TrEMBL record:
It comes from Gordonia westfalica. This is Fatty-acyl-CoA synthase. Belongs to the ATP-dependent AMP-binding enzyme family. One of its GO terms (biological process) is fatty acid metabolic process. Residues 420-498 form the AMP-binding enzyme C-terminal domain. GO terms for molecular function: medium-chain fatty acid-CoA ligase activity.
Length: 515
């Protein structure tokens, strides 16, 4: 199933509604635009397995471009527009993208990215307005050739940072099917497990460069539902949109729950949210008290899932299950789950280890990184894969997470990798040594803290801490920069020079427990 199926049956039904502007794209328009773009890309010489890149704030064209790729055997790499130009350029270059689509809303960034790419022969196409040097999206569609008869199913190829902080493309295997044939696992999951139908209205309040909003919106279209897109997250606006469009399903991260719960009671109670039948949450651990408060407010309609950009496995837990398995992320819904020690030995229920999911074959590889791909495999079973998360399984098969990807920081549902921040701060003229960690934050889940050992002759001060934060923000995306800086006399390192970051984290966790 794909938009073309529903364009025939319900051509005038809204496929996409922008919550702020009210702009609507019907199924006929979504099918026409994505088909024309697929034909245009084919005319540019792109073939199955090639890559296109997308740099945009939330806009209907994001899903038109997504479907153009999916109906022509291409990979689409959607890039976080909060990144610095050099970071975006790295992803565009590393992905081997042959075309870069950019919205006029990020025109300055898009132009800077093209400058960073230098002599690259990448085609550049702008939508929503003009960008100097970019072709116009409308002109590309108008000049498209006939629709493709062969429509092999493509996929997303999103980027997930590695242990060095350099992002790596998560490249799934392309399915050996046409776009109108069943077989997409995400579509099957939300159809059969979450019982999504063409009657559902799905609210997507998160940025479309994230895996869940992009994949879920695509699956909703495959099933004929309507996707309502919030241009930018706003807690009260979410309640207004749910009421206005009679939203039946939405997907959030725990920080969004916190923001909703922080609204004054009169605002929370001013809007009718009774149309909701399902509230899905994922992307970060949800504090149990926050989840309980949402259940008390919206009823037993919360469903949590645990997965990753790699889509190597999924667990799901309903409200009813969670109330008896508080803190669990559920049972596996995509292949058996195994918990193993560092040597690959499978552990009994209740013991903490690396979480592996078993599939018929390994479902992904890291683009241009065979070493990282091999590291994700179990030592004895190449079809068991892990993303480095620690946890345990109880005797009833429920998964509990105890850590997330070594030292990865999850703030507001966004993954932040300390090594990347440390790489920037290492060259600061006042810093001798630095460790970046995540510390608890009541609103965001975690926040970034830099623990700094200064060079001789430097004096700790609030002014220097502010300068270090500003220094970081000038060099990488603002959301990765430290919120706070602590100064210490010495950081713990082994005799071989390895930073003992666990010891640093323990200090802050212990301090938080005593507070």
């Amino acid at each position: 199933m794909y938009p073309g199926t529903h364009a025939q049956a319900t051509p005038d039904k809204p496929a996409i509604i922008m919550a702020g502007s009210g702009r609507t794209v019907t199924y006929r328009e979504l099918d026409d635009h994505s088909a024309d773009l697929a034909a245009a890309l084919h005319g540019m010489g792109l073939r199955k397995g090639d890559v296109i890149a997308l740099l945009s704030e939330n806009a209907p064209e994001c899903l038109e471009i997504y479907w153009a790729a999916v109906r022509s055997g291409l990979y689409v790499t959607s890039v976080n527009w909060h990144l610095a130009p050099s970071e975006v350029a790295y992803i565009v270059s590393d992905s081997d993208a042959r075309v870069l689509f950019a919205s006029s809303g990020v025109a300055a960034l898009a132009s800077a990215v093209v400058e960073e790419l230098g002599d690259s022969d990448i085609r550049t196409i702008a939508f929503g307005g003009n960008i100097d040097g970019f072709e116009a999206y409308g002109d590309v569609l108008a000049q498209a050739g006939p629709r493709l008869v062969d429509q092999p199913r493509g996929s997303d190829m999103l980027y997930s940072s590695g242990t060095t902080g350099r992002p790596k493309g998560v490249k799934p295997s392309l399915l050996p099917i046409q776009v109108d044939e069943p077989g997409d696992p995400i579509t099957g999951l939300i159809q059969h497990v979450f019982k999504v139908t063409a009657d559902d209205v799905y609210l997507s309040p998160a940025p479309m460069y994230h895996a869940a909003p992009l994949k879920w919106s695509g699956a909703i279209h495959a099933l004929g539902g309507t996707v309502v897109i919030l241009e930018k997250f706003d807690a009260e606006r979410i309640l207004e949109v749910i009421e206005q469009y009679k939203v039946t399903i939405t997907q959030m991260v725990p920080t969004m729950f916190v923001r909703l719960l922080q609204l004054p009671p009169e605002q929370r109670n001013a809007h009718d949210t009774s149309s909701l039948r399902l509230v899905v949450h994922a992307a970060a651990p949800c504090p149990p008290d926050v989840k309980q408060a949402m259940i008390d407010w919206w009823g037993p309609i919360l469903v949590e899932y645990y997965s990753a950009t790699e889509n190597h496995g999924t667990t799901i837990i309903t409200t009813q299950e969670w109330l008896t398995k508080r803190g669990s992320v559920g049972k596996s819904a995509m292949g058996p789950v195994h918990v193993c020690d560092d040597d690959g030995n499978e552990l009994p229920p209740g013991e903490v280890g690396l979480i592996y999911f078993e599939r018929e074959t390994r479902p992904f590889e890291y683009h241009k990184d065979p070493e990282k791909t091999r590291a994700a495999e179990h030592p004895a079973h190449s079809n068991w894969t892990t993303v480095g998360d620690l946890g345990y399984v109880d005797e009833d098969g429920y998964v509990f997470l105890t850590d997330r990807k070594a030292f990865m920081i999850i703030s507001g549902g966004v993954n932040i990798y300390p090594q990347e921040v440390e790489n920037v701060l290492t060259l600061h003229p006042a810093i001798y040594d630095v460790a970046v960690i995540g510390v608890p934050d009541a609103e965001m889940g975690q926040q970034v803290k830099a623990v700094v050992q200064l060079r001789a002759g430097q004096t700790p001060s609030d002014e220097l801490a502010d300068e270090i934060i500003a220094y970081t923000r000038e060099r990488i995306a603002h959301f990765k920069a430290p919120r706070t800086v602590d100064f210490v006399d010495e950081l713990p390192r082994t005799a071989t020079g390895k930073l003992v970051k666990r010891e640093i984290e323990k200090r802050y966790l212990a301090a938080g427990a005593q507070a």
